[in-house]
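Lay summary. Proteins are chains of building blocks that fold into shapes, and those shapes determine what they do. In this project we predict the shape from the chain. Here is one chain we studied, written as its sequence of building blocks.
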Amino acid sequence: MVIIGAHYFSGWAHVCVNSTQPGCFSHFHGFTPRGERTDDWFPDYPERIPLLGNLTTNEDTIAREVAAADGHGLDFFDMLYYDGGSNCGYNADPGLRWCLNSALAFMLNSSTVWRNTSGRLHFFISYSNDIDVHEPDAFVGPNGDSKWDGLVKTWVAAMRHSRYLKVNGRPLFKVLIPSIFIQECGDNATLAMLRLRELTTAAIAQGLQPPLIGGGWQNPSVPAGTDPAPRPHPEGFMQYTRTRINCTGCDLNTSSVSTVNECEGKCNATRGCLAAVVRRPADAQQVLSCTLKSDAGPGTADAAHDTYVRVNERVPYEWTGTYNAAPPTCPGQPDSRCPRFQHSWWPNATAHGARIFPYRECGDYQRDARGNHSNDAVPYLPNVIAGFDPRPWEEQSPSFAMPSHTEWMAALRQVKEQCETTANRFGFPDASQPHGYQPAFSIYAWNEFGEGGILAPTHGEGFMKLRAIAEVFGR
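And here is the predicted shape, written in a compact code that computers can read:
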């Protein structure tokens, strides 16, 4: 059976009353479709207004969301945990006093949130460290010891909850952005691995099985479906045969090596390396040339080159995943960007704001990109895009139309087939299963109302997306 989850963003709270107040911020602040600033963009996007409540600081909102997800076949919420933000009131655990963790706090402590559920829905924690990108040494030294110890206590306490998701008895946990986690550890992979071992030790001390620790933010946007097609590499690199990475200033260094594996090893040991390019000389007896790159592509066809794009981070996670990675790439274009998607946000040439691209351009790309991970070194949790249209926050990314019912059904059937293909190992590690993994996928997202990744029922779509899940997966 394939288990199904959705990323959950708990950032919907009115944390101030005046957006001009110094330091004041709210995710309701943003832009109208024409680009004018507004303190509340929901009136300009009424189709996104949630039916179950739009404040994650309200307990009854969380209770309705949990019941709806449970009743329509979701197995888990992937809760984005933040270690900073505005204080939304007292909680006995100081790690849960933040607005951005209010929904998790209700799931852990409320006596009513789980009342109207069947027992299907669970949750696990993703350490959402994207906001910590400017704290490069957060977990270094005595202060880092203290900070990490506090987070571990909160996370392990959550793992003991009866609804925390466990696979073969092991609680799931994910570092959302592994590259930032390395930075938080002073760019020291050894320290990063030590910190994760400390999390494991603390969980065991509380009577839990060792957590299944995953690394998120794996990038599926290296070229998908290119000619020649990418071929997964079983040792943790995806190989793109006869490809030359075409970028300016991204060479880290070039050296001679005896084998491809040696070149890959150099990439893994080099800060900022995302790809290793192997040049094969005409004389097969000569050594290979190994060029390390800080850009993963894409490239142009070149019979003399093989490109190995790194799949795994320097920390050996037991599984990997992806968050959104919605905009498609264009093979052969500089920096992998597609000219047709550039400057598609407001302002542009259209009369009513950003140009909106068809959902299929995002959905089909995601389908192909998931296949790039079909032979990763560890199980991969594939992702399905419920939508991506970040105009309310004026992100510098293209906008895509929300999927129709037909398109959404097709996307679900695609990922179902991919997850049920045992050779892919799409899901979570599970030694008790015949093929060593529990089939699973995640959806971006339950409630990213600002970015348009919306699975939660809304005024525009009703319960369409949830009912489609129940239909496709027989729940």
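What the prediction tells us: The chain is about 25% helix and 20% strand.
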